Structures are given as C-alpha cells and as structure tokens.
Amino acid sequence: MEQASRIRLSTRQIEGRETWGKKIDFLLSVIGFCVDLGNVWRFPYMCYKNGGGAFLIPYCVMLIFGGIPLFYLELALGQYNQSGAITVWDKVCPIFKGIGYAMVLVAFFVDWYYNVIISYALYYFFASFTRQVPWSVCDHDYNTKYCFEPSNGPEYYANVTYTDESGNEITEIVNKTVSATTEYYERGVLQMHHSEGLGNLGSIVWPLLLSLLAVYVICYFSLWKGIKQSGKVVWFTATFPYVVLFCLLIRGVTLPGSAEGIAFYLKPNVTKLGEAQVWVDAATQVYFSLGPGFGVLLAFSSYNQFNNNIQRDAMLTSIINCATSFLSGFVVFSVLGYMSLRNDIPIEKVATEGPGLVFVTYPEALATMPGTSIWSILFFLMLVTLGLDSSFGGTEAILTALSDEFRLVKTNRKLVLLLLFLFYMLVGLAFTSQGGTYLVFLFDNFAAQYAILTAVFFEAIAVSWFYGLTIPTERISDNIAEMIGSRPAFFWRICWLFLCPIMIVVILIFGLMNFENLELDGYPYPDWSMALGWLISCTSISFIPLMAIYKFLNTPGTAMERIIHNLKTPQQWPEGTELENGMNGMVLGNKPVTDV
Q1: Contact between residue 208 and residue 434 where contact means Cβ atoms under 8 Å apart
Q2: Calpha distance 178→154 (Å, rounded)
Q3: Phi, psi at 520, each rounded to 5°
Q4: In the prediction, which pLDDT does 217 show?
C-alpha cells in the first residue's frame, strides 16, 4: 500500500478540530477542574469524621480500584474518538447515547448553583479590601444582641443594652455565642433572616447578583475563543491555589493549638474501618472529587493529540488531585485547632464542612490574626480560582458536546456561550435572592449526586461489555494500544468490568437507604421541594432510557436487528486505511479504526 494512504497515529486528528496549544494546558485544565472547592471544604471533614488517618486506607483502596480506573477510561474514550460527551456514543455504542445527554444536563444544572457559590467567594474577596474586615465586628444593623467579635471570643452573662421598637432602652444579661462571621454570612451577605424558606424567597440581594454577573463575565472571556484561550487562563487559576495553600499551611502550623488540630485530623481510629458507611463515604469522595460523568474529561481529552500518553496523564492528575485534598486537611485543621484553643471549645464542635467552613469558620480565624485583610484577600481569591476552574470545565463540557453534535452551535460558539450565560443570569435571580441559599442547598444535593453515579455506571458497562461487541474490554484496550503503543494491564480491565460498576451500585444503594429529607439551619424542606429535587435528578437520568428507545424505534428491521444495529460500533474511517503506530512506526493493520 502506498505511504500516502496511511494515517500516522502521531498526527491523526479530525480535520479542523482544535487542539491544546501545549500539553501543560491540558494537564492544568484537568487538575483545575478536579481540584475544586470540595477538596478544601469536604475531604478534611470526611477524614476527621471517618476515623482520621485510618480513613486514608479505604480512601486509597477506592481511589486505586474505582476512581483512577474510571478517570483513565473516560480520558481514553475522549482522546481516541476526539468527540464530546454526546457524539462520542455514535462512535462507540449508539444505543447508549442518552448517557451523553445525561452528562450535559448534569453539568447544566450544576452550573446553576455552583457559580453562585463562586459569587459568594468573590463578594468576600472584594469585602476584604478594607482596614477592618466587616465580619470581624458586631456594629452592623443586622447584628443581634448575641453577636461576639472573633477577637474577643464568646462572652457569657454579658450586659447588653439596646433600644427596642418603642424607643425604650433595655439592658439584658445574655450569652454572646454567635460569631460576627456567622451573622455576616447569614444576615449580612445572604440575608437569610428576611426569607421564610423556599415558599418565600424574598427580594434579590443585589451585591450578590452583581458578583454573579462578574463571575459570568470572567467565564465568558475565558471561554469564548475555545480551549486555546482557556488553556492560558488556567496557568494562573490552576496554580495560584497551591501558592496560597502552602502560605496558609505555613501560617497555620505556627499558630497555637495547631498541633492538636492536626493530631485530631490524623489520629487513626481503626475501629471505624469495620463500618460500611466509612467505605461508602470514601468511594463517594473519590468519585465526586475526580469528576468522571460530568463530560468534562471527555471534552478536555478530545482536544489532545491522538498518541498522547493518556495513561500517564490519568495517573498524574488523579494523584495530584488527591494529594491536594490531603494537603488541604492540614491547612484546615491547623486553623481549627487554633480556634478550638482560642475559644475554649472542643474541636469537634468547631469542625464542619461545606460553605460553613470557608465562609464562617476560616474567616473567623483570619479575623483574629495580624494582617487580616491580606490573608483574607489571598484566601478568598484562592476560593474564586478553585471555583472558576471547575466552572470552566463544566461549561466547556456543554459547549464541546453541543458543538460536536450540532454544527450550528459550533459555528456560533460565542453567541451560544453568551445566550447560555444570559440564561444562567436569569436563573441566578432566584439563587441570589434572600432565600437563594435554600435553592443552592437543594440543587447541591440533587443536581449531580444520583444522576452522575447512574451515568458513570452505564458508561462503564457500555464501554466494558458492549463496545465493539467483542470480548469485554477488548475494544477499548485496542484503542488505547493504538494511541500509546501498549495495551492496558489486566488490572485496569478487571476494574472496568467488575469493580467500578459494583462500587457505584453500592454507593447508590447506601445513598438511597440512608436518604432523609433535607434540613438547613432548622428549616425542614417541604415535600414539594423534595419532589422537585428528585425531578431534577430523574430528568438527567431519564435521557439514558429515552434515547435508547428513540434509537430502537427509528431503526428499521426486526427487534433483534434494531438492538444489534444500535449496539454495534459504526465504521469511522475508510476501508483499507493502514494504521501506523506513532510510537514506533509499526503498521498495526489494514482495517478501520472503529471497524467491528
């Protein structure tokens, strides 16, 4: 066969498809997406709650046998097929195309509230540019008589004088046990006290809405020109958090009480290893931290050069992500130990997770340190950059998936992105209202959790068992060999076939068995809101069976012929094409890349 008819794997790309400017752009984008706010506010608490240092045993087990294999599988799938989350299934197994739509919808719903949380951090960032940060004092109109300033600590049996609604001056003896940082977050920033819950969200908090607008402006101009533009932005947004984390770690370990906090974080309680919930928590933390199922890994890897060593990248980025979570634990618990000592409160009452950690507990600690404003600026800028990277990934997953599936979107990327963010801003009116935090909490619990796990389960089943209708995992192993010159080890194939799907099913079962109606700060969520939450989850999941039914009904032939046709991998490349391995120049064969 003539040399001209060969396709060299080292240069094989879909004509006109954009690629990363540099390899490091891809790596930083993946790391930036995986290392998000959850690494700071969730992992340290999960470690403390589930046996301290002993939690690292189930965490590492779940990472090795579940997280990294799925992470690797999704990156390989995207790089080989050079397609986003929807179109990739046309080249793999058409009957499972609904998985792609489910991934896009999950990313879409998550964007609704995740960018609002980033706007909280941006609000705090701007508020830090003062000589005295506003969450350090109790002299605001919204403060209550129970407020104490972080520099003074809680006060008991304190005389408080205030003027009532009739203008009378009243003196009371009260316990000042509510921190100024708590009241600033709940009453000053969110203004939750003006809302009665989801039934009455109250009015818009305009500073938050303006902060949200700023977030979308940053995202738009970082993404509008494609991955070459965003690949440059992540050089700052993906690396800056590490600079701040190390600065905060150095500052934290020099504080009094920090050693006790770190010991509390790491002290192993091996008896916890016998509890099934600990292992489920470890698996859940791993899966949601690495982020398979959002369509982001498929999108990012689809812009790689074809023979990029994706196995090495998967190992490197996933290990960096998990090491960052572990490092964050030292940063957080060194400060929690300091706060426990300073306020004479048991550390288990100081330890918390979620927004309360980064918008209340940590700012309270910063308010007691010299150079409060500088530390606050660095801390909240770190939160903003952590959030933006993940937001970039979610939006790019949506754009890549839709661009590959619909040519109109591809040719009008800037307009589509603008319309998408305008819609997000419209939705953001509710999320930035005085009761918006109740919506954020609702979506945080329903938008991704069950839908992502379901999508990843079917992704693993489809690629491992049905891709190519050959020996299980044979086709994806051949694909990887064509890209990097060697087949994946037996370990990876066993994980894809059995361990990963089984782990996901166990997580889903435990999650459903232990499910309880939501409650936030004493507000029980009404039944209709729970129904709305399940509707959000089921909307994404429903596309998996609906698209399978659609494919079945629109294929001619008998029932069995329709099923086989939609399970079969379509031909992608011309007949007679020789494949030359870009690693060593050896001809692999004369059949199409995706011929069954």
Answers
A1: no
A2: 8
A3: -135, 115
A4: 97
The overall longest dimension of the chain from CA atoms, in Å, is 99
Per-residue model confidence as pLDDT tens digits over 233-281: 999 999 999 999 999 999 999 999 999 999 888 888 888 888 888 998 8
* Mean of all residue pLDDT scores within the chain: 89
Contact 99, 87 (CB under 8 A): no
Task: Identify the sign of the CA torsion 290, 295, 296, 299.
Answer: positive
Position 593 scores a pLDDT of 36
Distance CA 372, CA 64 (A): 40
For 110-120, how does the pLDDT look when each residue is reduced to its tens digit (9 = 90+)?
999 999 999 99
- Name the DSSP letter for residue 200: B
Q: What is the pTM of this model?
A: 0.91
CB 341 within 8 A of CB 55: no
Burial class (CB in 10 A: 0-12, 13-18, 19+), 193: middle
Residues sharing a CB contact under 8 Å with residue 433, sequence separation 6 or more, in sequence order? 195, 201, 202, 203, 204, 205
Pairwise CA distance, residues 138 & 159, whole Å: 15
Q: Which tokens belong to 66?
A: 């579940």
Query: In this predicted structure, what is the pLDDT of residue 353?
Result: 72
Contact indicator for 391, 178 with CB cutoff of 8 Å: no
Main-chain phi, psi angles of 290, to 5 degrees = -75, -30
Report whether pLDDT(447) > 50: yes
| Measured distance CA(442)–CA(116) in Å, rounded | 13
The single-letter code of the amino acid at 365 is A
pLDDT single digits (tens) 468-479: 999 999 999 999
Report the distance separating Cα 391 and Cα 111, nearest Å: 7
Collapsed DSSP state (helix, strand, coil) of residue 179? strand
Q: What is the DSSP string of 360-415?
A: IIHHHHHTTSTTHHHHHHHHHHHHHHHHHHHHHHHHHHHHHHHHHH-HHHHHTHHH
**Complete edge-to-edge strand list for the sheet that includes strand 7-8:** 7-8, 579-580, 587-589
The 10 Å Cβ neighbour count of residue 218 is 18
Q: What is the pLDDT of residue 355?
A: 87
Host H or E run for residue 174: strand 169-176
pLDDT at 575 over 60: no
